[in-house]
Design a protein that fits this description.
Layout: E1 2-3, E2 7-16, E3 19-20, E4 25-30, E5 33-38, E6 48-51, E7 56-59, E8 61-66, H1 79-89, E9 91-96, H2 107-117, E10 123-126, H3 142-148, H4 163-176, E11 180-182, H5 187-190, E12 195-196, H6 199-204, E13 208-209, H7 211-228, E14 232-234, H8 240-251, E15 256-261, H9 270-274, H10 290-302, E16 307-309, H11 317-320, H12 337-346, H13 353-360, H14 362-367, E17 383-393, E18 412-422, E19 425-428
Parallel strand pairs: 2-6, 2-7, 8-9, 9-10, 11-14, 12-13, 14-15, 15-16
Antiparallel strand pairs: 1-19, 2-3, 2-4, 4-5, 7-17, 17-18, 18-19
Helix pairs in contact: 2-3, 4-7, 7-8
Length: 433
């Protein structure tokens, strides 16, 4: 990463903001702002030049669901290492979940994260707790946290379990104009599940988490959102009936949005057996069935699911190298998210590049009421350069997170981020250029 206020990006294919990704052009950045967009531009003396021949360029990507662990769990990840992973994966903005220690339940913790990340290329937006200490009992100081920079509220890692507390939270969200992001799980139905409850868990002799544990909580939340007029955002959706519930709620005019993690439209519960209890395929919600994977893709195609995210959840080697039932849930995902989108959505012809980019650029920011970066002269340069054809090996030395709990390590992937630009800084991801 370098301070590069003046940069000429040559021969790129803009996509979004009226561009269709078919016509090559040049983009000049001066003092961190896009100053000129035209083919055949000549570099000024004070400009670095980057030749992006054959590379797409869009507004900078955003992941609205990551865990950067700081403060309190810096042995897993820090804001600095999390931002490093985000840059490598093509993301210029992220929203971080509040299951830290202390939890992000007061304005001072929100401001700590904002201050800690201000020197990073990646913009980090804290998500505050719904309840004090994520204990589920009393509402946290939501308005004060919003004034300090919180963009949403969640107790992620755990659901907002008490229905009256969730009702009050949604009423507050309506007044504050921000979403409540809920981890959708009925704990009595789900515990002590270690994977999806089904044929594979039965065969392996593992306690499973049934789909209905997710679906019953979503049903409650969409009803409460309809009752209060609040905005509920369904975190990491993973089952077919869950998508059906959100689809029906949208049709009924309820303010509900949702996201899907890349691993939930790629991998199934059969990976636990195929990989002989590899803890890097243990996450929550768990990997589901092929029918559920198909439903995630259908939801992306018809717009029921607006956002692609990662639920980037780093854990140390010591924490993951234990028996499957004792391992914590979660995998890293920022490094590999785009490659999974290419593999499952773009290469099979299910979605065009432009639709996938909307789910990474404009849709998450609209949900969080953040400015959407545009490729337009006079605008702040917040950009991601990427391709859909480069093959690369995701080896341990490619991992940019502090932790290495990814099921994709060792695989050959296709498509990757090439570089990102934000805050007057330029960072290359791929060695291709």
């Amino acid at each position: 990463m370098t301070d590069t206020p003046n940069l000429l990006i040559k021969n790129v294919l803009p996509i979004g903001d009226g561009f269709d990704g078919t016509t090559s052009t040049d983009i000049r950045i001066q003092d961190g702002l896009i100053s000129e967009i035209s083919a055949g531009l000549t570099a000024y003396e004070n400009e670095e030049v980057f030749d992006g021949k054959g590379v797409y360029i869009s507004g900078g990507w955003m992941d609205m669901h990551v865990h950067f662990r700081e403060p309190g769990f810096e042995h897993k990840e820090t804001i600095e290492t999390g931002c490093r992973s985000a840059m490598f994966g093509g993301f210029t903005e992220v929203a971080c979940m509040p299951n830290t220690k202390p939890a992000i339940h007061t304005r001072d913790v929100v401001e700590f994260i904002k201050n800690k990340s201000k020197e990073q290329l990646v913009e980090v937006h804290p998500i505050g707790c719904v309840t004090k200490e994520r204990a589920g009992k009393s509402i946290a100081e939501m308005a004060d946290m919003k004034n300090g920079g919180a963009v949403a509220f969640s107790d992620d890692g755990d659901p907002v379990y008490n229905s009256q507390v969730m009702r009050v939270a949604l009423e507050y969200s309506s007044m504050l104009g921000v979403p409540i992001i809920n981890h959708e799980e009925d704990l009595e139905l789900s515990r002590p599940g270690h994977m999806h409850e089904g044929a594979v868990s039965t065969r392996l002799g593992l306690d499973g988490t049934p789909s209905i544990a997710e679906e019953t909580m979503i049903a409650r939340d969409v009803l409460l959102a309809g009752f209060t007029g609040g905005h509920v955002h369904v975190a990491h959706i993973s089952t077919r009936k869950a998508v059906d519930l959100v689809r029906k709620a949208k049709a009924d005019g309820i303010h509900v949005t949702t996201e899907v993690c890349t691993h939930h439209f790629d991998l199934t519960d059969e990976e636990v057996e195929r990989r002989n209890f590899d803890t890097n395929v243990k996450m929550h919600p768990p990997l589901r069935t092929q029918d559920d994977v198909d439903a995630m893709i259908e939801g992306l195609v018809d717009g029921t699911i607006e956002v692609i995210c990662t639920d980037h959840a780093p854990h140390s080697i010591e924490e993951k190298e234990v028996e499957f039932i004792y391992a914590p849930n979660g995998i890293t995902g920022l490094d590999t998210a785009w490659s999974i989108c290419v593999k499952r959505l773009i290469k099979p012809g299910i979605l065009p590049v432009a639709r996938v980019i909307d789910m990474l650029v404009s849709n998450p920011r609209k949900i969080l009421n953040l400015p959407v970066p545009e490729i337009k002269a006079g605008n702040k340069a917040n950009l991601t350069l990427f391709n859909t054809d480069e093959e690369w090996n995701y080896t341990p030395d490619q991992v940019r997170s502090k932790s290495k709990n990814s099921p994709y390590i060792g695989e050959t992937l296709t498509g990757r981020s090439v570089a990102v630009y934000n805050k007057g800084r330029f960072s290359r991801s791929s060695l291709r250029n």
